[in-house]
């Protein structure tokens, strides 16, 4: 998808900030210089800066100019921020924090799903699983997309509106995690049975079993990611090239 001038400007500045071209705490170049460098008007640049302020990458104020914010102020749930981090090379701390978050959120959501999911919820989870199974057995389909849909459907099946909204917020983070873990040889195939166990436990209204299995699935994914990070020659992904990894 081709972005307009505004979107391209946001991308260029966002990538420059994430890659530390503009160091934390320092001001961006003067507006005329930045406009000339990027080849955009002042109005476009100002709107791009506003967008990056909203994403937590920049702050503006009288007498201080436009300054780069530290990483802990960035919006780590923003898809653009994640995309820029992927291009730079994901730090190991990012992967660790994501897996910690999954261990906190998903088991509770799956436990609720086993108590509250209706027929439509179960059909959505079943459909996503079928897509994963077909991708493993037949190839050709986007395994990661079906895997993401599986976990999103589980969160929605909790019938908790806040957790359901988190399924959208977490999408970029989960996709990035799956892109790394599926680089391991036979990773998708080896995890398929655990996905089936989660689905069966939710369908059978067994909250404790569902919670235990999703924890095993998350921990298995963590191990797959650790193996990929530790491998000097990472296995090829079934899909498009996975996220770059920082040393």
Write out key terms for the chains shown.
247 residues, Arc Repressor Mutant, subunit A, Four Helix Bundle (Hemerythrin (Met), subunit A), two-stranded antiparallel sheet, 2 strands
Describe the structure.
- It contains eleven helices and two strands; from the N terminus they run αααββαααααααα.
- The protein has helices at residues 5-18, 31-38, 42-54, 79-88, 92-116, 119-137, 143-156, 161-169, 171-181, 187-203, 207-230; strands at residues 58-61, 65-68.
- It has a two-stranded antiparallel ribbon with strand order 1-2.
As laid out across the biggest beta sheet, the strand order is 1-2
N-to-C order of helices and strands: HHHEEHHHHHHHH
Helical fraction equals 55-70%
Shape: elongated
Number of strands: 2
Structure annotation, total helices: 11
CATH structural fold name of the largest domain: Four Helix Bundle (Hemerythrin (Met), subunit A)
Structural class: mainly alpha
**CATH H-level name of the largest domain... which superfamily?**
GntR ligand-binding domain-like
Query: Mean pLDDT, rounded to whole units?
Result: 88
The low-pLDDT segments are: 234-247
Strand content: under 5%
Task: Compose a concise summary of this entry.
By secondary structure, this protein is mainly alpha-helical.
Topology record:
Layout: H1 5-18, H2 31-38, H3 42-54, E1 58-61, E2 65-68, H4 79-88, H5 92-116, H6 119-137, H7 143-156, H8 161-169, H9 171-181, H10 187-203, H11 207-230
Antiparallel strand pairs: 1-2
């Amino acid at each position: 998808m081709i972005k307009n001038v505004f979107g391209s400007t946001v991308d260029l500045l966002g990538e420059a900030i994430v890659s530390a071209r503009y160091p934390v705490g320092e001001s961006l170049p003067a507006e005329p210089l930045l406009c000339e460098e990027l080849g955009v008007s002042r109005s476009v640049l100002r709107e791009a800066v506003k967008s990056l302020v909203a994403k937590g990458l920049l702050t503006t104020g009288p007498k201080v100019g436009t300054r780069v914010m530290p990483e802990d102020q960035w919006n780590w749930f923003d898809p653009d921020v994640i995309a820029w981090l992927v291009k730079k090379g994901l730090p190991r701390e990012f992967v660790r924090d994501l897996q910690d978050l999954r261990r906190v959120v998903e088991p509770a959501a799956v436990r609720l799903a086993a108590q509250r999911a209706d027929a439509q919820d179960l059909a959505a989870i079943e459909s996503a699983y079928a897509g994963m199974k077909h991708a493993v057995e037949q190839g050709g389909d986007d395994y990661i997309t079906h895997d993401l849909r599986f976990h999103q459907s589980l969160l929605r099946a909790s019938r908790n509106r806040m957790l359901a909204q988190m399924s959208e917020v977490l999408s970029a983070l989960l996709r990035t995690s799956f892109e790394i873990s599926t680089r391991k040889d036979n990773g998708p195939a080896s995890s398929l049975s655990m996905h089936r166990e989660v689905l069966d436990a939710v369908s059978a209204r067994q909250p404790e079993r569902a919670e235990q299995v999703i924890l095993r699935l998350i921990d298995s994914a963590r191990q797959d990611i650790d193996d990929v990070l530790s491998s000097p020659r990472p296995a090829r992904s079934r899909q498009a090239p996975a996220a770059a990894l920082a040393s």
